[in-house]
């Protein structure tokens, strides 16, 4: 009997192994197609998952690019992935082939956040009518609520004054600016989506800032890659319960804010904010089963704007202050320009930007050097396409390596150094650079770019107008190396802000 059980077990094991190998081969057969991009050899079942360092994908991609070229392939379990590097290939993929490359891969774990056929938010939405409807709605509503208008500018300037007051409270003593920067950028987004502002000591905004940090870290871990590559695992309740804990909490918090906000909505009154405008569209779409204006999608759209808008701007500002304490000569030149163009009596305005080429160059260089979204959000091919002569089949996940463009050795004089001269000509005039694409390009390019630019200029100039920043006495010089997660943040540091 024991022998029989042993025989049976052996046969079952062999059958399972053969089944898995055949299943694996079927999922990998496109690799043998002519002109499929080269890449490291995958291991059955896991593909290249175990060969990659998810904590530092930028470096991993850098090494693989040197080995395999600008367009190379990987395999995440059974998901085919192609990584696109360098300005020419990235532009070809995102701009020339935009109709083929603007889809997003399904992320199975997002179903735990309520992602479904008619509720996809914007960031992770499939390229199609649902995404188009929401993208158009967000762009036009943000514009109506002040993007490009004086009102939002005044709002950001007033928030910058609150931020300066909070910096001044530290009385020149060392502190880490990150949490204050998050609260300030949170208030800009909150004004647009909830028509409200949080005091800096409000427990809600403190909790939100902490959760957003945790959420960023959980986006890139290996466990999540494995469950997303083998979605069957999400059917196991204890696995599902352990996935995305921080993002589920942000969602719950966002639901609380929305519930509170929505009690004040009056359909006959002009919308106070983007959420009111969405509720109005929902009202109009009642009975239309095709519409993406529904309760669940409202949560996802607001969640996307909040998370995509808050962390990106605050992390960039944190980089900007870090680079100012590490490069006091650059800080001094920005302050001289502020003194010349704005002075100390009035607040900075967007109109000043055109007359401040050095400051503008510094902000661009901060974004290039910080390189905070090195791989964008994954794209996916919606049909067979070609990039740099390589054939990329429909349904392939695309990682657009923005880092390879922002730090390209052939395009930038000092790619690995902070050097504002990258954006200045010999006469000190600001020059645009084609390879400057921290917001990506093509149809999925960042929809918050104009808002982000406004925030970066106004917060940065307001802070530098009011304070001189330095490394606290006796502390070592902070590192210029970033901390990798889904976004790249500066390593934790402290500064002193001494009022002028
Ligand atoms: C310095 C600040 C920012 C940077 C560097 C940045 C960068 C990016 C990048 C790289 C993408 C992905 C593009 C792609 O997939 O190819 C993106 C998408 C997006 N960003 Fe931003 N972003 C910033 C600020 C903002 C702000 C303030 C908002 C909110 C108003 C925002 C909202 C979004 C949204 C909704 C998407 C998804 C667009 C889509 O899939 O159609 N971002 N951003």
UniProtKB/TrEMBL annotation:
<dbReference type="InterPro" id="IPR050182">
    <property type="entry name" value="Cytochrome_P450_fam2"/>
</dbReference>
<feature type="transmembrane region" description="Helical">
    <location>
        <begin position="6"/>
        <end position="26"/>
    </location>
</feature>
<keyword id="KW-0408">Iron</keyword>
<comment type="function">
    <text>Cytochromes P450 are a group of heme-thiolate monooxygenases. In liver microsomes, this enzyme is involved in an NADPH-dependent electron transport pathway. It oxidizes a variety of structurally unrelated compounds, including steroids, fatty acids, and xenobiotics.</text>
</comment>
<dbReference type="GO" id="GO:0006805">
    <property type="term" value="P:xenobiotic metabolic process"/>
</dbReference>
<dbReference type="Pfam" id="PF00067">
    <property type="entry name" value="p450"/>
</dbReference>
<keyword id="KW-0503">Monooxygenase</keyword>
<keyword id="KW-0472">Membrane</keyword>
<keyword id="KW-1133">Transmembrane helix</keyword>
<keyword id="KW-0492">Microsome</keyword>
<protein>
    <recommendedName>
        <fullName>Cytochrome P450</fullName>
        <ecNumber>1.14.14.-</ecNumber>
    </recommendedName>
</protein>
<keyword id="KW-0479">Metal-binding</keyword>
<dbReference type="GO" id="GO:0005789">
    <property type="term" value="C:endoplasmic reticulum membrane"/>
</dbReference>
<dbReference type="GO" id="GO:0016712">
    <property type="term" value="F:oxidoreductase activity, acting on paired donors, with incorporation or reduction of molecular oxygen, reduced flavin or flavoprotein as one donor, and incorporation of one atom of oxygen"/>
</dbReference>
<dbReference type="GO" id="GO:0005506">
    <property type="term" value="F:iron ion binding"/>
</dbReference>
<comment type="similarity">
    <text>Belongs to the cytochrome P450 family.</text>
</comment>
<dbReference type="InterPro" id="IPR008069">
    <property type="entry name" value="Cyt_P450_E_grp-I_CYP2D-like"/>
</dbReference>
<keyword id="KW-0812">Transmembrane</keyword>
<dbReference type="InterPro" id="IPR002401">
    <property type="entry name" value="Cyt_P450_E_grp-I"/>
</dbReference>
<dbReference type="InterPro" id="IPR017972">
    <property type="entry name" value="Cyt_P450_CS"/>
</dbReference>
<keyword id="KW-0349">Heme</keyword>
<feature type="binding site" description="axial binding residue">
    <location>
        <position position="446"/>
    </location>
    <ligand>
        <name>heme</name>
    </ligand>
</feature>
<dbReference type="GO" id="GO:0019369">
    <property type="term" value="P:arachidonate metabolic process"/>
</dbReference>
<feature type="transmembrane region" description="Helical">
    <location>
        <begin position="301"/>
        <end position="326"/>
    </location>
</feature>
<keyword id="KW-0256">Endoplasmic reticulum</keyword>
<dbReference type="InterPro" id="IPR036396">
    <property type="entry name" value="Cyt_P450_sf"/>
</dbReference>
<keyword id="KW-0560">Oxidoreductase</keyword>
<dbReference type="GO" id="GO:0020037">
    <property type="term" value="F:heme binding"/>
</dbReference>
<dbReference type="InterPro" id="IPR001128">
    <property type="entry name" value="Cyt_P450"/>
</dbReference>
